[in-house]
Amino acid sequence: MPRDLTVAVEGHGVQGQLSRPPQPGAPATYRVSAMRPSAHPFQMRVKAANFSETFNGTLVSVLWDVTVFKWSQATDPRTNIDLWRKLASDKTAVSTQVKRLSLQFGNGGPGDQPSLKPLATAELGSNHFGLIAQSSLPLSAGTWTFSTLSDDGIRVTVDDKPVINNWTWHGPTRNTGEITLDRDKTVNIKVEYFEIDGYAVLDLGITPHPKIMSPEKKLQTAAR
């Protein structure tokens, strides 16, 4: 980016910050962040020399209440979903809050995730663990897409209605689902996830349907 670059962001509940590295030739970065959990439409204007461009997007900011727990063959979520859910209230379950459901477990477990630091001392291991995440999120009227990358089982409900359901033992798999709101509304989102063994990942994104945004060039940001 040239030194005369200017970037400005406009939108209710968002702010932007331009960072220029001290090293010559290193790229500058511009970070758009939300000041509270919600879906924040924004407009970003970029100018430099003879270049000028305007981008429109939506930043979805969510604060998740997350509970992680161990399960056994007797509480296998594929055959005993009610018993499995009760484990989230067991004294051995561990809870924390995260700003984004983007958990690259790999061959590790919850205690290895930087965003799940409060769980580091819990004996959760890397296999046979479950996770339930819940949040309330204000959304505007229109259609919203929920997308997941999971290994293994994943369920997403919005106001207790299923949006994504791949409650199986599988490798990294992408799933999508949509909801349509006829008015602005705060919705309750629940994500249920289980890992059996081996590699594990859980990633959730929430994006608005393009009709919600301006027909100009769009810059979409996943749920953070």
Provide a short characterization of the protein structure:
The protein is an all-beta fold and 224 residues long. The chain has one helix and 15 strands, in the order E-E-E-E-E-E-H-E-E-E-E-E-E-E-E-E.
Structural class: mainly beta
Number of domains: 2
Shape: globular
Strand fraction equals over 45%
Please write the string of helix (H) and strand (E) elements.
Answer: EEEEEEHEEEEEEEEE
Using only C-alpha atoms, the radius of gyration works out to: 20 Å
The helix content is under 10%
**Order of strands across the widest beta sheet?**
7-6-9-14-11-12
Termini Cα gap: 26 Å
Query: CATH architecture of the largest domain, please?
Result: Sandwich
Which parts are unreliable, with pLDDT below 50 for 5 consecutive residues or more?
A: 212-224
Contiguous helical run count = 1
Number of strands: 15
Main CATH class of the largest domain: Mainly Beta
Mean pLDDT, to the nearest integer, reads 87
CATH superfamily of the largest domain: Galactose-binding domain-like
Largest sheet: 6 strands, antiparallel
- And the CATH topology of the largest domain? Jelly Rolls
Describe it:
The chain has one helix at residues 81-86, and strands spanning 6-10, 14-19, 29-34, 38-48, 51-61, 64-70, 94-98, 102-106, 129-139, 142-151, 154-158, 161-166, 173-181, 185-195, 200-208. It has one helix and 15 strands. The protein is globular and about 65 Å long. It has two domains: 6-58, no CATH class; 61-211, Galactose-binding domain-like (Jelly Rolls), CATH 2.60.120.260. A hairpin with a 2-residue loop joins strand 11 (154-158) and strand 12. It is mainly beta and 224 residues long. The strands form four sheets. The protein has a six-stranded antiparallel sheet with strand order 7-6-9-14-11-12, with no helix packed on it. A four-stranded antiparallel sheet has the order 8-15-10-13, with no helix packed on it. The protein has a three-stranded antiparallel sheet with strand order 1-4-5, with no helix packed on it. Helix content is 3%, strand content 52%. The relative contact order is 0.19.
